[in-house]
Amino acid sequence: MYVLKNAKIYTPQKAEAGSVIVTDGRDIAYIGDEAGAEAYIAGGKTGAGEEVKTYDLAGKTVLPGFIDAHTHPGICAESAWHVKLPWTEDPQVVLDFIGEYAKVHSKEEVPFLYFEYYPTSMFGKEGPKKEMLDAVVSDRPVLCQDFGEHLSWVNSKMLELMGVDRDTPDPTELEIFVRDEDGEPTGWVRERAWAHFLDRMYDAIGWRQPVASSEEMLAPVMDFFRDSGITAMFDGVIETDELIKTIYDMDRAGRLYTYYDGSVRFWHYADLPGKIEKLREYQRLYTTDHIKFNTMKLFLDGTNETGNAASIEELNDSPGNYGEIMMEEEELVDCFLLCNREGLDLHIHMVGDRAFRTACDAVEKAQALAAGAGEAWVCRPVFAHCESVHPSDMGRPAGLGIYVNWTCHWSGGYFGDEALNFYSREKWNGMYQFNPMIDSGANVSYSSDVVTYYELHRAAPFFGMQVAATRVDPEFPLDPEKYPGSMRPEASAKLGIRDLIEGYTEAGARQLRWDDKLGSIEAGKIANLVIVDRDPCEVPPEELKDVRIEAVMFDGKVVSGKL
């Protein structure tokens, strides 16, 4: 048992508290002032002969452990072998780099070249062509990933080895190979359509990309989350069985310092039952006190920057084009009803305002149908991203019990203003607006959604808080000549520090159904705590990323830093 005293403790009641007592190995037994802590100990509640250690925090701030409510640890770990491209808008600079890299690293040494990232804005609406890559590398497959992670550029050799040609059907409505007027793939690919054909290519070259099948590979990513104060997370997509086995083995060995909630992805109602069976398999094999599986994952549309988000209005200069959507309301209703009957939650990627409205309509209809059939509504709808929401729909999440999850570090200039190629200035300015939802009482949680080792550092919660509180990206600022101070409009969309802390703690715990034991510093909850050098609420927003984490406690034990 131990006491943390002389601290500034963040409580749900926003009341002043200076001491917290942790007992029974991991549970919070008391929170309040120092006199109350002394009375608790003097009252003999510690148990006969139990040693009580006291740590004077000298005015430091204690926060609940952070919760990253949508991230991708496995994908980040598996991307460590990717090659970083020079950041430039000049395609020739990129091609020269790729050609030189291929000369230095032979086909035998690197049989598949995977580069990241080229700016989404580098190419126009027609996209890049395979012939450009063929001119510098033709002896092996090459893939270049765009900055938004939703577009790719491949060479002819990769298409050939995957067996993709004019007669190959696209995997889904969103995942497509862009084609010329004769139907031939141009080399530009949307939404990782290539991933469906990788096994063919790997068989042809006799090589497989590394997967997160060892703790050695996954540890650097998990260590970063731990040191950043993240003590619980939601994995947006379980990519491989090997990943879950690794996480499970780490937990059994006492080296998993996070509560982990994993999801299984499906594409349509037709494949949902089979994917639910996969989730049930994970539940049977890998559930522990720290690991659970209760969520199905769906991509409903694409991205605003590539023009394949589902839009209420026609896209710029494209009459009749309202973007793309994976399924319409009727099919989505069926998905919600099946998940509800199975007692599962449904987490949906959506960025366009039509996707948001369609999903809200589907939730409303599914709830009514369940009630009419005498079925209790237990499915928790989670809408991830929600970048563009029509003002008339802002209040619907609170009324329908929809949980909203936002990726804070996208709030500034991370994706530039490429969406203006498809949206009006007014609509673009209205994106990334969550204050009306918060004010209406909706549960709004926050996350990093990092998908590559390249951007892992941006998963630090204080980094995300700074970007969301300022609307300025310190690494990818908008052009200050177009946007004063490099701030992404509108200023009214800046999020408050207290709301950000709550979204990274209590709201995340509610979304993941862990609020009975995580998310706040209260008696009876688990002592997942983050000790920082100063009160984030008193730090200038533009300095939040510099708040220093002194110690991280997981299940009552210090796992990073020191008290």
TrEMBL record:
Record-annotated Amidohydrolase domain positions: 54-559
Segments passing through the bilayer: none
GO molecular function, one term: hydrolase activity, acting on carbon-nitrogen (but not peptide) bonds
PANTHER family given in the database record: IMIDAZOLONEPROPIONASE (PTHR22642), PROTEIN LONG AFTER FAR-RED 3 (PTHR22642:SF2)
Protein name in UniProt: Amidohydrolase family protein
Organism: Candidatus Allocopromorpha excrementipullorum
